Each structure stands twice: as structure tokens, then as C-alpha cells.
Amino acid sequence: MAYTTAGGTKKKVCYYYDGDIGNYYYGQGHPMKPHRIRMTHNLLLNYGLYRKMEIYRPHKATAEEMTKYHSDDYIKFLRSIRPDNMSEFSKQMQRFNVGEDCPVFDGLFEFCQLSSGGSAAGSVKLNRQQTDIAVNWAGGLHHAKKSEASGFCYVNDIVLAILELLKYHQRVLYIDIDIHHGDGVEEAFYTTDRVMTVSFHKYGEYFPGTGDLRVSDGLDRFEPIVMAKVMEMYQPSAIVLQCGADSLSGDRLGCFNVTIRGHAKCVEYMKSFNLPLLMLGGGGYTIRNVARCWTYETAVALDTEIPDELPYNDYFEYFGPDFKLHISPSNMTNQNTQEYMDKIKQRLFENLRMLPHAPGVQMQAIPEDAVPEDTVDEDKEDPDKRLSIRATDKRIACDEEFSDSEDEGEGGRRNVANNKKGAKRPRVEEDKKEGEDKKTEIKEEEKSKDIGAEKTDSKR
Ligand SMILES: [Zn+2]
Q: Which GO terms describe its cellular component (predicted)?
């Protein structure tokens, strides 16, 4: 499917996004802000990237899809728990680790459905060879366990997506460049050689306290040579890349010193192997940089150069004072000496040598695709109406998350965007297609009209 141009190999890209995702709110003071997905989406729309890829609104993954990995009682609990009935569930909340890092919030289960729906649909699309790359920035929630929430993650969309890929692929490589260890994914596939997990992360008094490729503060690059060796030894036929952006310089929780270009090098490199590639989000807590990073990585997936000068967008003021796409590294010390990095590499290579070369598997009859449910009803649905189901109080809560002061420790900045119904999102035309996730056509003229309208609706 890939076709070659003078500039490199162009890939077909399918991108999954639901306009509701930015409305979910973990609560005041919580660093995880689904709003960053909306910021990313808005920024990449305004760069014109929607013209170069297929945009789909994901189906909501069902409980049945989720229990392909998670336990029935845990998913049942996630479906049932709400802020207004929490008191009846205190025992289960403890058992499933829901409450503090992983709070109960309005629409929690739907949020998990959208995040998982996008990742699973991306895998199905790749399996059907209908795309080269699938992107779901709402996915990548790598800490969720079979029967436990962890580290802001409830349902492990990555595990579900990999399970889907394994229906068609003998070996799947999972790479995780979040600053935290991808422990949930590792745990899920610990006993199979059909999935290899490689996680670059900080180690030592740092959540979750596990994992092997441990590095220290100030890391400023990922080593392609490690990946080259892994590819050579393991020979996967599909790749899942978790692009957690908390490894970027200046992250609110992270302490690496990676630039956006450095982060995206990993995308570029993994893409160069010309294998089916699923790109997912993950951590990332300085939200203006998350939007920058994932926008740029979408452009990298598309082999498209985009200017450093940011286009006007709904959240333009978040990106001051420079209004540039790229960020500068800080002057923090890289505590990982070359010697130390070499030692890590050495150990990793030794581990790789102990692996059987490209382990084989007996393939069995291919299970049915996780075909998203019949979407006919959803197609008829007015997207704005769906937005309004979660009532006004949701939106009020949401306004708080636009306050940058809480995010980035700088007061005085105001949110640019007001989340008024109908004003925010580009008008979309939904295309009914083969019982699949709906493709979203964004009409150029309508989009510019909308953007124009939004400019006037910029304060609260
Ligand atoms: Zn993280």
C-alpha cells in the first residue's frame, strides 16, 4: 500500500478521534487532562493535516470487548461506578484501586470505551491492510491491569489492540517511550513470546517502580541502535508505539530532557521498517507540549513537513510566548553518562541473544475481528446532542481545565476557548460505511467558517 516518492515512503494514515474526548475531566488538580487530545486535534486540523489522512470517529468499545483481557467483575464495576454512588462501592474501590490517582469521574466508563475503541479499531484496520499506520492519541493507557486501575489508567487499550493484532500477526513489538514503565502491557504479555515489550523509562523512586531499561533524569534521546537490534532479533510483523509525551523536556511530572524532534525520531525510525504501525498516546502533563508533540508526530507519520510557526487555533494563547511548534531542551544535566548508556545497551543485547531467534508460533484458525458494533444508531445521532447528555455541570467543571495556571504553574493566562455547544468542533459529515467506525469528512469551507466563528467566542 505504501508508495514511494522522491522524499521517502508515503504511508496511508487512519486517525481516530471523538469530539467528546476533551470533555472528560479527572477532577480539579489532577494532572491527567483529556482536554490535551482536543488541543492536539485542533492544532493538527489547523495545520491542514486532516486533508492527508482518513479521520474516523471510533466506536465505543463494549464491556465484552474489554473482557477479552480484563476481568468481568472489574469491568462491571467500571460500568457501574459514578460520583453519585461511590459510597456504595467503597470496598470495591479499594479492591480495584479506584479513588485517588484513578478517581471516579463523570463518564469514566465512556471515556474508557472511546480510548479503547480507537485503539482496537486501529488494529482491525491494520489487520485488514486498509492502512499502513493507525493513530489514536486517546489511547496508550499502559498502566491498567487486568483487575486494577493504576497510574491514571483504567482499561488497557494497548493490550486490547495487541490482542487484536495477534489474530493476524505472529509477533508484535511494543515500544513505549513514556517516561513511566509500561508495566500493564508487560504484565499482560509476560508469559508469551509473541509480544515483545520494550519500555524506555525512568527508574528509581519513580512510579511504578518496575522495569528493566531504566534510565535517570535528564535523558535527552532514545537509542535507535537498541531498536535496530530488537528488530533484527525479534522480527515482528507489526509494531505498536506508545508515544507518551511526559518524557519531553519541561513536563509537569516528567524529568527527561527530550525535545519534540527527539521524541518524534522514534516514530520516524519505527516507521522506516515499513510494517503495520499503531501509534498511541499515553502520559503527558504539560498539555501545550503534548499537543505540539502529537501534532508533529502525526505530521511525521504523514511524511509532511509543517512550519514551526503555529497556525491560529482554538487554544492559541496556550502556546505563548513564542507560538512555535518546537521546544528547546532545558539546561538540566543528563545524569545518564555515555558509559552508563553503553552498559544498559550491553545488557540488553545480552538479553536479546538469549531469546530464541524470531520465535515461531503455531497459528490457529483466525478468530473473528472485533468488528465494532452496528453503528447505524450512532450514525443517526447528532454529535452535539450526545455532547449535551453530560449536563451543564460537566461543562462548568471543564472550564477549570482550561486554566493554564493549574497546569503549568504560571498564573494570569486565560483560556482561549469556551466550550460552547456547537461552537468548538468543526462541522463534520459522517459517512456511513460497512459497519465500521464512521469516517469523518471535514469540509474545508465549513471548517474555516467554524474557525472564524470560534475566534469571536473566545472568552468566558
Ligand atoms: Zn507516564
A: cytoplasm; NuRD complex
Which residues is 150 bridged to in the sheet? 153
Selecting among 143, 169, 201, 263, the annotated active-site residue is 143
- State the distance from the centre of ligand 1 to the C-alpha of 7, rounded, in angstroms: 34
> Which residues share a beta bridge with 279?
135, 241
CA of 36 to the centre of ligand 1 (A): 14
List the binding residues for substrate. 101, 151, 285
| Ligand 1 geometric centre to CA of 247 (Å) | 8
Encode the chain (460 residues) as per-residue pLDDT tens digits: 544 444 457 999 999 999 999 999 999 999 999 999 999 999 999 999 999 999 999 999 999 999 999 999 999 999 999 999 999 999 999 999 999 999 999 999 999 999 999 999 999 999 999 999 999 999 999 999 999 999 999 999 999 999 999 999 999 999 999 999 999 999 999 999 999 998 888 776 667 776 655 666 777 667 788 889 899 999 999 999 999 999 999 999 988 889 999 999 999 999 999 999 999 999 999 999 999 999 999 999 999 999 999 999 999 999 999 999 999 888 888 988 888 888 888 888 887 887 777 777 666 778 889 855 443 333 333 333 333 222 222 332 333 333 343 444 333 333 333 333 333 333 333 333 334 566 777 654 444 333 333 332 333 2
Show the domains of the chain with their CATH numbers: 13-328 (3.40.800.20)
Let me know if 142 is a catalytic residue. no
Measure 296 CA to ligand 1 centroid, in angstroms.
Answer: 19
Q: Ligand 1 centre and the CA of 287: distance in Å?
A: 13
- Residues within the annotated binding site for a divalent metal cation? 178, 180, 246
Q: For residue 441, which phi and psi values (nearest 5 degrees)?
A: -95, 130
Known binding residues are: 101, 151, 178, 180, 246, 285
- The whole model's pTM is what? 0.82
- Cell digits of residue 202: 525512568
